[in-house]
Design goal:
alpha+beta; L,D-transpeptidase catalytic domain-like; Nuclear Transport Factor 2, Chain: A; five-stranded antiparallel sheet; five-stranded mixed sheet; 12 helices; elongated
Length: about 425
Amino acid sequence: MTAWSRARSRIRSLSSRAGLRTGLACRPGMLLGGMLLAALSITAPDALAKKSSKSASTDSTAQPAVSVETQFNQVLDEIGKQRFDVALVKVESLIRARPNFHLAHLVKGDLLLARARPLHNIGDVQNAPPERLADLREEAIVRLRALRERPPIDQLPRYLLQLRSEQKNAIVVDTKRARLYVFAHQDGALRLMSDYYITIGKRGSAKLREGDQKTPIGIYHVTSSLPRQKLTDFYGSGAFPINYPNEWDKRQGRSGHGIWLHGTPSDTYSRPPRASDGCVVLSNADLDQLGKSVQTGLTPVVIAEGIEWIKNDELLRERKQMREVVEQWRTDWESRNHERYMQHYSRNFSSGGVNHASWDRQKQQVNAGKEWLKIGISNLSIVRNPGQEEFMVVNFEQDYRSSNLHNQMRKRQYWVKESGRWRIIYEGNG
């Protein structure tokens, strides 16, 4: 029987005595938190007192430098293996490196308390603020879940169908799991490069209006980089604003502003999973690492309420289908067949105050004065919306040539699926 199997058996026993439901009927958070609790309380109270010099010698100080999260995961792993003495040595080493990591202090306290008596909860201490303990317990559960449930190695987020050649990285945020993933983009392929624990809005995600303390769901990009020197200590080592509300948000009547990726105050290593006013918050160390991957104006930031993962061949198939849709639009425009061209536009189309009827008249008049027309499209990116609304954001460089005009521009289109067909609902400069 594995350590985690023993932990499950122990929590079933504890839950049964407490009158709780067990098995699949148990909430995931309760199950995961219970597994950590069970690992801490499986052994007799005096087990931790029997420290061996051999176990203590496994301190990670002799190893190459690793991230704080990796060190904390090692602590959880040792607890899961019931190697509490080793876990204590590791968590003490972690606290020395990051004295403001409050969750590490809580775990150390539990390990010390477990020497004297069985524990009945994470942070099983008296006279402590219950709200603060609840926050730290939730953070422990979220971090443990991320440790146990890694992204599928043979799959990618469904949203990143195609990136521009100069987009070196992409960011995907999972609000449900309080996790941010960074994907490296090279030669048209994506690979998971790193991932980080994050904090989201106090009231969850799917932002609708100013002040609702929710994190938006959608497709965004980083608009600027704000260094520490221009911010208060609350934002930590810096901030990366994103373009919420985007064109789609505005069409849906969503309001608000000031949604950033930012750090934490100097006295705090990390915040609870739900503690911001809508921003995505990382530890300062993680934000500094993330900053190396961010390209202002280029890096896409997809925020999802639970990531949909698909195999690469399925992603390539969806990419091919959408490229064909865009190519047919280009071909029909170039043909100067106005009826076929307008079939690509939704009746709900609008752009800069121009509705479908105005766009129809305008394009018909312009094309009537052309003897020939050539449209070139390059550096195409296609990103699928992560929410319930089925739409794509398409960006490309357009080379427009005609009998009386030549220009080049970056263009952004929003394509929405209507009655099984993709149509353009917004078009403007990218």
